[in-house]
């Protein structure tokens, strides 16, 4: 399934992930997220947890942020980082369970998916909502059209 999303901001814990020991580094960041206090002190307006991959490098490394949606003008705690996700089209994949460990297998399927539209490599993310299905959103090339609503 494809969808377009507007720009939004996620704040949380950040690490550079290299392809060497990728899963171990991701698991460590998740462990730091769950064991730390940042998840409780972020000025978030949603209980959903986001895992954002961005700033992809030619050597395969990327930046990973685990956090929550925050407002445009939110002041972050000292140990937090943030990322603005650009408006873009996404191809979505459902996770079989609402746990970050399920994402590794789905990412392997995504990387092997020959029918996936061309990726943008700007930002991809996983969502773990309190209610509903966990998903992976993979940024793809294409025109983003957002309809404005008037109240």
From TrEMBL:
<protein>
    <recommendedName>
        <fullName>Integron-associated effector binding protein domain-containing protein</fullName>
    </recommendedName>
</protein>
<dbReference type="Pfam" id="PF14526">
    <property type="entry name" value="Cass2"/>
</dbReference>
<feature type="domain" description="Integron-associated effector binding protein">
    <location>
        <begin position="4"/>
        <end position="140"/>
    </location>
</feature>
<dbReference type="InterPro" id="IPR029441">
    <property type="entry name" value="Cass2"/>
</dbReference>
<dbReference type="InterPro" id="IPR053182">
    <property type="entry name" value="YobU-like_regulator"/>
</dbReference>
<dbReference type="InterPro" id="IPR011256">
    <property type="entry name" value="Reg_factor_effector_dom_sf"/>
</dbReference>
């Amino acid at each position: 399934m494809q969808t377009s999303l507007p720009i939004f901001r996620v704040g949380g814990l950040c690490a550079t992930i290299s392809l060497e020991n990728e899963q171990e580094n991701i698991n460590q960041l998740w462990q730091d997220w769950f064991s730390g206090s940042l998840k409780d002190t972020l000025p978030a307006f949603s209980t959903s947890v986001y895992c954002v991959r961005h700033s992809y490098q030619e050597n395969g490394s990327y930046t990973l942020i685990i956090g929550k949606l925050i407002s445009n003008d939110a002041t972050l705690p000292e140990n937090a980082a943030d990322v603005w996700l650009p408006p873009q089209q996404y191809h979505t994949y459902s996770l079989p369970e609402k746990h970050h460990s399920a994402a590794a297998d789905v990412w392997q399927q995504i990387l092997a998916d020959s029918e996936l539209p061309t990726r943008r490599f700007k930002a991809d993310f996983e969502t773990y909502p309190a209610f509903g299905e966990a998903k992976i959103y993979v940024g793809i090339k294409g025109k983003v059209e957002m309809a404005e609503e008037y109240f």
